[in-house]
């Protein structure tokens, strides 16, 4: 009797393996051979599910973004304005093991995206979506009278997103200089100043 294969599950296993390789060894080490080995499959199995390495990498990034989006949706359910913005921004910082892995994955794609227009397009689309949500939450906060500043909302959005990226990168690169507690404190200070 032929073996029944759950193709969706196998695809998820390959993407999980790709994420583990990228987070542990870096994106340059995420070859199809390394991903197949990590997943416990042959290169032929990968070829059955993905056209090439870039498709695996893009799919792993998209899957990570989908998980983050689902988690954020649960966290901000029933809240708006500054309360929702606080949850969203803190969730985008590497404040625990899961989010540290997500940040490492994301940062790994940044340099590769500079050389791959296909990856850059995905990064830009995802970043635009996050930017729109932050901008919308700032708009809600202003409409509710929660903001003390009259600063341009687009400028505030860029400042907050740059702070998320900068703090995340600093924690990953300089772990002896900043702690997770520092990141949370600095982000909350920035939000409180609004």
Principal-axes geometry comes out as elongated
Distance between the termini: 65 Å
Instruction: Supply the CATH architecture of the largest domain.
Output: Orthogonal Bundle
Largest sheet: none
SSE string? HHHHHHHHH
Number of helices: 9
Strand-residue fraction? under 5%
Number of domains: 2
Assembly category: single chain
Low-confidence stretches: none
Which range best describes the helical content: under 10%, 10-25%, 25-40%, 40-55%, 55-70% or over 70%? over 70%
The CATH C-level class name of the largest domain: Mainly Alpha
Output the structural class.
mainly alpha
Mean pLDDT: 92
Kindly identify the CATH topology of the largest domain.
Answer: Tetracycline Repressor, domain 2
Cα-based radius of gyration, to the nearest Å: 19 Å
Q: What is the number of beta strands?
A: 0
Instruction: Name the CATH superfamily classification of the largest domain.
Output: Tetracycline Repressor, domain 2
């Amino acid at each position: 009797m032929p073996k029944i294969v759950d193709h969706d599950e196998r695809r998820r296993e390959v993407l999980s393996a790709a994420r583990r390789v990228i987070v542990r060894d870096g994106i340059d080490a995420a070859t199809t051979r390394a991903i197949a080995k990590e997943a416990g499959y042959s290169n032929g199995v990968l070829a059955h599910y993905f056209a090439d390495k870039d498709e695996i990498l893009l799919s792993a990034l998209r899957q990570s973004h989908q998980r983050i989006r689902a988690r954020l949706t649960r966290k901000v359910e029933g809240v708006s304005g500054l309360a929702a913005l606080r949850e969203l921004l803190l969730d985008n910082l590497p404040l625990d093991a899961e989010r540290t892995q997500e940040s490492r994955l994301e940062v790994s794609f940044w340099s590769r995206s500079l050389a791959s227009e296909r990856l850059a397009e995905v990064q830009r689309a995802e970043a635009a979506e996050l930017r729109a949500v932050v901008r919308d939450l700032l708009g809600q906060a202003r409409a509710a009278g929660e903001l003390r500043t009259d600063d341009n909302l687009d400028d505030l959005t860029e400042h907050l997103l740059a702070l998320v990226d900068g703090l995340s990168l600093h924690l990953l690169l300089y772990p002896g200089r900043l702690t997770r507690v520092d990141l949370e404190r600095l982000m909350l200070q920035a939000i409180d100043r609004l």
